[in-house]
Please model this.
Amino acid sequence: MNATELLRHDHRVVEQLFRDYRAAESNAQRRGVVEILVRELSKHAALEEVLFYPFAAKVLADGQVDRHLAGHQPVKELLLELDRCRAGDRAQDEVMERLASAVARHVQEDENELMPLLCARADEQALRELGQEIDQGKQRAPTRPHPHAPDKPPALALAAPLAAIYDRLRDRLQGRPRT
Model:
């Protein structure tokens, strides 16, 4: 898959997780979905910031990417708030709804604005190679939200690997799902 196809696939996975949350029958099931959602969205956002948006900024070169990158901040803040909730926490449902809305806006902007422009201007081979990089990066991307970390290179290139190591250690200690 090329980068845009891979990211669109990730978007569909996240949309399914929101549906799974709504369909869950117990607090434990909902919390399990939350933990997977936090992991998948955190990895997705980090890989977009480290790989996809810098690539898009080089291809488009007119500042269009900054607005899309800014859309990550409220999502990361909501993810952090959600990650701090516990099973059965009353706030969890409300945070999930706010997160679903923020993610839907972000997905719509990326898929309807940024990705078509990028596909029209970028080399298909470069998009395929970027897709491979993103796919491989999933194994070492941060699994928790870091809203206060840098979101642009070069500082992001230093912060993301450290955050990923810390996150994966925390995931193991807390018995969270692995990737």
User: Anything to note?
Assistant: The radius of gyration is 16 Å. The chain has a mean pLDDT of 90. The chain has one domain: 3-174.
